[in-house]
Amino acid sequence: xxxxxxxxxxxxxxxxxxxxxxxxxxxxxxxxxxxxxxxxxxxxxxxxxxxxxxxxxxxxxxxxxxxxxxxxxxxxxxxxxxxxxxxxxxxxxxxxxxxxxxxxxxxxxxxxxxxxxxxxxxxxxxxxxxxxxxxxxxxxxxxxxxxxxxxxxxxxxxxxxxxxxxxxxxxxxxxxxxxxxxxxxxxxxxxxxxxxxxxxxxxxxxxxxxxxxxxxxxxxxxxxxxxxxxxxxxxxxxxxxxxxxxxxxxxxxxxxxxxxxxxxxxxxxxxxxxxxxxxxxxxxxxxxxxxxxxxxxxxxxxxxxxxxxxxxxxxxxxxxxxxxxxxxxxxxxxxxxxxxxxxxxxxxxxxxxxxxxxxxxxxxxxxxxxxxxxxxxxxxxxxxxxxxxxxxxxxxxxxxxxxxxxxxxxxxxxxxxxxxxxxxxxxxxxxxxxxxxxxxxxxxxxxxxxxxxxxxxxxxxxxxxxxxxxxxxxxxxxx
Length: 479
Ligand SMILES: CC(C)[C@H](C(=O)O)[C@@H](O)C(=O)O
Ligand code: SF4
Fold this sequence. Notes:
Helix content: 25-40%
Radius of gyration: 22 Å
Structural class: alpha/beta
Bound molecules: 3-isopropylmalic acid, iron/sulfur cluster
Largest sheet: 5 strands, parallel
Number of helices: 17
Oligomer: single chain
Distance between the termini: 63 Å
């Protein structure tokens, strides 16, 4: 048999019907649902008198609209309240498991799925949410779908899909100390742009990827969509199996052994060809900060804000000009001179336990700068519980961070956590579009370590020498 990529194997395993030059019909193994993109889908089912075909393969949670301060209902905002209540009713009516506000499993859908062990290698996973690509970290073919597709999957457990092409992003070398998975994916997008992977499924390969923990792999795959990709994939290995073993919905006993045996066979065969391949050397990457209004407008912390004339094409120059105006930044300003007002640590990109540990390590023993308002929002109730067990909440609170309830929070302005116009935020989320965190708000995407360090210094700093620098600055009374 011809050698195949991991993508081709998963695809072939799920095609129910294929015709030349037409989208294929795929079987879907797991459907995740949240309150924002599901109401019309359920309504469509109801109007058509249909049922959910596989309620046992469908799991829901509330995340985008939930307040992160006070969880007691009713929720103030009428639209948010309606969306949440509608999901509660729909799950009841159609027999779907909902991880609701009062359950400790509730959280951002892409944090919740993996940590419950719902996400397995080789599965097809969909959700009415673009960052479904996160689950690709397990070697699952996972992608976002629109509301009408949500309805289709609810009704049939199948989905029409045009077969994407394959792109290998090979990461050679090692990530330097203080440089994280977030910096890696921001650097990849800065290097090749926000549409370099349009029409492709990315498979990340190479030593640097193999060395990443599951949570770091999720950070990388999460932002595949910001590179335009349909999905991101990482081959399952011991790290994957170790993470999954024993989780609530992971296979148990003999089933587990059988599953692992099958998962091992999913990896790309030697000699299999991708449609395209790019290579990046991890050892050249610095901690990243975005300066503009697209995730591709990123630069290393030792750099300066670029000038429009630095760009090769007229379109890029115009985009840079517009972004700089919106962001209120002068070209050539050193990145470390940019003062911030707010810090948000959380989201499906960086709201997991390892992210909180990393941020707490930086913040431990320091105080948030007086002009900065900083918050830490665990990605799920389970992350929150674990963090509190480890005392991370105390470290953050003592340093002056707010410690919140789980949800999407300030990743996007769909709940009370928003930036005021003109406010500048160091954010561990994945999108920095105009107004993403509140109308007129300015977002800089960074890693959790960089966000925590910026909270304390009041401006961006290079975390690679955080300990040394912070002590010096403390001695000089500038922190
Ligand atoms: C609200 C939802 C549809 C949206 C998405 O699809 O990604 C959101 O999660 C986001 O991050 O912008
Ligand atoms: S945390 Fe942000 S990116 Fe993730 S699902 Fe929520 S809004 Fe979308």
